[in-house]
């Protein structure tokens, strides 16, 4: 017997993906999601980061937000 648990379904805008690793942009992933370096620079400025070289890791989250870990 199959039972429906009525769990909410969360639709993902994106699959989580690396965007910056050790200060270097993963350009392939930006292109895959039709995002530009300008978009990335704007996002980093929202975190008070002026240079991608100051980021150890950044990831595009499933909701479209950016997770950033500074050096």
What does the model show?
It is a single chain. With 71 residues, the protein is α+β, with helices and mostly antiparallel strands. It has one domain: 2-Layer Sandwich (CRO Repressor). It has two helices and four strands; from the N terminus they run ββααββ. The protein has a four-stranded antiparallel beta sheet with strand order 2-1-3-4.
User: What is the residue-averaged pLDDT?
Assistant: 89
The helix content is: 10-25%
Element-level helix/strand string: EEHHEE
**Based on helices, strands and strand pairing, what is the structural class?**
alpha+beta
Sheet with the most strands, sense and barrel status: 4 strands, antiparallel
Number of E strands = 4
CATH third-level topology:
CRO Repressor
CATH first level: Alpha Beta
Oligomer: single chain
CATH architecture: 2-Layer Sandwich
General form: elongated
Task: Compose a concise summary of this entry.
The chain is an alpha+beta fold and 71 residues long. Helices cover 23% and strands 25% of the residues. Strands 2-1-3-4 form a four-stranded antiparallel beta sheet.
What are the main properties of this structure?
71 residues, alpha+beta, CRO Repressor, four-stranded antiparallel sheet, 2 helices, 4 strands
Write the layout of secondary structure elements.
Blueprint: E1 17-21, E2 24-25, H1 27-32, H2 37-46, E3 55-60, E4 66-70
Antiparallel strand pairs: 1-2, 1-3, 3-4
